[in-house]
Design brief:
alpha/beta, Rossmann fold, two-stranded antiparallel ribbon
Length: about 300
Amino acid sequence: MSAAAPVRTPARPGPGPMPEALLRALDLTLRRRVDAVVSGEHRATSLGPGTELAQLRPYVVGDDVRLIDWNATARTGEPHVRVQVAERALTTWLVLDVSASMTFGTADRRKADVAEGVARAIGNAATRRGNRLGIATFGDARPRTAAPKQGRPGLTNLLTTLREEPVEEGAGATSLKETIARVERLAKRSSLVVLVSDFITGPGWERPLLRLSERHEVVAIRLVDPREYELPDAGLIVVEDAETGEQLMVDSSDDGFRRRLRAAGEQREAELRAATLRAGVDISEVSTADDLVTAIVRIVESRKRRRA
């Protein structure tokens, strides 16, 4: 199965250049930290077939003779076998916001374009070395779910999802709350959940996020645009709520209005950070004005410092 690249237009420019060398450097950074944004090498705590020695113990009838450690046997005079740490693939769930507010952008790209770039970087790292990637989208009338797949099939699922246009007509858009509950039901084993959204969504997602973070490692990446709460002085302008389509004429030259808008944005950001903190989830921010690869590496480095 193949997935053609999305069509690029001035209105939908995509994430911009993502040099392979930088993606390889990102992948190397991620591999070195099991507990970073995406880990390429994750091990179970159980014992079984693997490559890392956990212990030596005396041989018992029924043990695989190929596991005999001849050095320990010679040293002790009694047959010993090697018991190794069992390896297992890491499952990453990418939860992607495709709501109407993600089409907003006043810098070089839209929030949706930034989300695409973040998703591609995470997808490339999360599908290497036998690891699995699952996908869940929300925010439009047709939420998509792709079960975790290893390697190329997992990445193909992601590219196919990114190629599809959000469906705005029909039933009410799926909320973040519903999608977190969906991922919680589907993620049967401990996983890494990467949530990419602008968090302009309906209420009630905080408690489900807390439940999710109790069983899984959750990383939240918030997409923002410089002009969401900083209007230019351009006189009378019409602003539209991307989620509801409601339009309102405002006087952007009114200093008081611009101050209230900025204050509302700061309050919303503080409430969002407090909500994710209560859920035990770190939240990082990427702007439409950022260099995308640099921003992703910054998130990884920030998480490494927090874990140190």
